[in-house]
């Protein structure tokens, strides 16, 4: 059906799209760098970045070039055949992270499903079929497919979907005693985010990292780190686990990895890969050549030390500026000021700027937030 000229896209969306999102009444028509523009020409500083997807902003030249060049070759050939877009991206990811093998899929929840399946298959193939339990954390978020949802420590988003896959246990974030009480010789894996973003932007403590690494060594369980939102440079290191020193066996990636196209990945240690066989897992579209070509363009930019140094500098700039602002409900007020922001659990304001955001754009963001806070707290 052709778009009605009488209705806004917001009205058309309500009529034709399943009501699964609380969408803002706004129609964007163009993006450029760190900015979005609506149909009326209003300019918005985009500190949502597609929920941490557009890590290089809008209209990144290297991403556009990668898409055009790969589409001149082939769009899709399936995983029945090897292809260099996948191989080249895998080599770049492994070089940046120190892992040994990569598996490509389409999304973060698929990457986490892969991690869960690979961890359990690892112990099954080793003859330790009792190792099923995966320990995760309250307020974590790992996705919306059933195993990933079971791993997620938020009962409200599981409500109404019936029985969940079993053998998942959730302990409080940064509660070392609770974690130690749950991990034993039947534990398959400890699974955590390198930063609990959706759960309230919670940082893992040094004590928790030490406990996780110690328990892994003591009981031989695996460690799965969900880097879907905080990986790919968001914490100033290529992976968040590198910042914290987490000894991981499996890592999930997505969001920023695809630069705007659907792409996820699991990074594996060799010992886990050695227990996998053809047919244990699979995907029709995962590792699409065009998406992988884009992923390589993204990795090649983010992995540069000077790029990550800028992330650290802009993070410090924003942190210092935010500490001076009062707290309030600012999402709508910020949008009125021409700035897109997000919330997280626990009334937390979440900023996800492009990782190549400039110092001037961060100053602009702080000025807009100051006005938004003033409006929201009146």
Task: Offer a concise description of the structure.
By secondary structure, this protein is of the alpha/beta class. It has helices at 9-16, 49-52, 61-71, 84-97, 108-125, 146-151, 176-182, 206-219, 240-244, 270-273, 289-302, 305-322, 331-336, 359-376; strands at 28-32, 35-38, 43-46, 101-105, 133-137, 168-171, 187-193, 195-196, 202-203, 222-226, 250-253, 264-268, 339-340, 342-344, 348-350. Strand 14 (342-344) and strand 15 form a beta hairpin.
Shape: globular
CATH class category of the largest domain? Alpha Beta
Query: How many helical stretches?
Result: 14
Oligomer: single chain
Total individual domains: 2
Poorly predicted spans? 1-6
Would you write up a description of this structure?
- The protein has 378 residues and is of the alpha/beta class.
- It has 2 domains: 61-302, Type I PLP-dependent aspartate aminotransferase-like (Major domain) (Aspartate Aminotransferase, domain 2); 305-378, Alpha-Beta Complex (Aspartate Aminotransferase, domain 1), CATH 3.90.1150.10.
- Helices cover 39% and strands 16% of the residues.
- The chain has 14 helices and 15 strands.
- It has helices at 9-16, 49-52, 61-71, 84-97, 108-125, 146-151, 176-182, 206-219, 240-244, 270-273, 289-302, 305-322, 331-336, 359-376, and strands spanning 28-32, 35-38, 43-46, 101-105, 133-137, 168-171, 187-193, 195-196, 202-203, 222-226, 250-253, 264-268, 339-340, 342-344, 348-350.
- Strands 4-12-11-10-7-5-6 form a 7-stranded mixed sheet, with helices on both faces.
- Helix 4 packs parallel to helix 11 (289-302).
- The longest helix is centred in the N-terminal third of the chain and has 18 residues, at 108-125.
- The N and C termini lie far apart (45 Å).
- Residues 1-6 have low confidence and may be disordered.
